[in-house]
UniProtKB/TrEMBL annotation:
Residues 1-21 form the signal peptide. This is At2g35280-like TPR domain-containing protein. It holds the Pfam family Sel1. Residues 100-184 form the At2g35280-like TPR domain. SMART domains: SEL1 (SM00671). The keyword 4Fe-4S does not apply. It comes from the Bacteria. Keywords: Signal.
Amino acid sequence: MKMKYWILGFTLSFLAPQALAENLCAENDCSEAIENLHRAADYGADEAMIILAVSYANGEGVNVNMDQARIWMKEALRFRNPQAYHVKSNWRRNGTVFEQNEERADYWLQKAVESGYAPAVYEQAVRNIRANGDIDEILALLKDAAKDGHPESMYLLAQLFEESNQHRQAAQLYMHLAVKNYRDSNERNRAYARYFEQSEQEEDRELAAQLREYESMEVIVVRGIQSEPMEYFNDFSARLNEEFYRRKATGSNVRRAPPCGSFASPCNIIFDRKTRDTAATNVEELLQGL
């Protein structure tokens, strides 16, 4: 898998068109940021494209406009944005923006999985579990996402290891999750430390000591986006504006060309892509993944 992703939470009801309870933008607060996003999108920033698609679908910072949501989603898909694959899958599954179509939803989900987008890999694993799918395939999916540090996948994989008495593997996953203070991983980490301390095997005692070391680590959680989402949104749109708007357009408004440094343009890098780490449910969560 090429990129590292995190997930804010698993849901199968992504991006409903109705305004959510807490939108990122209050009325008229996002006009300049939205304008910057439009400029960046016109110059080939797929990150801006998917944000605009979600913004128009939810009515965040702009009026709800399903035509614009479809236009920008299609553009993001054309640029092979893996987050767009996943959002499109859920839109298709729920009949949001596009007509409901389970077959097309599965198609876009598979595209996201093939792109290495960890939230999509996790979703596929969960769907396979619900369908009583092949356990080896489920484990392979979860291991792939877990390697990228995807906490939901790590946690589910640890539970499966625990149920199959593969306690060392489970303990190691809980140990790393405890540093993130994820769910009840601290309690499970302590329980495994006590469990391995009772063993007479040296390697078990060494693992117990390692678990205790992680237990004593101080967890510092930084959530700047939650305290000042508008500031982050404006900064992000300004950065896209700075890095894209000052260069000559390489495509028309109808067929935009990828920026230099992307998969299709092996030239000087102009835009430094950030790895995405979230399956978004609104613009604020989408920004956390950019």
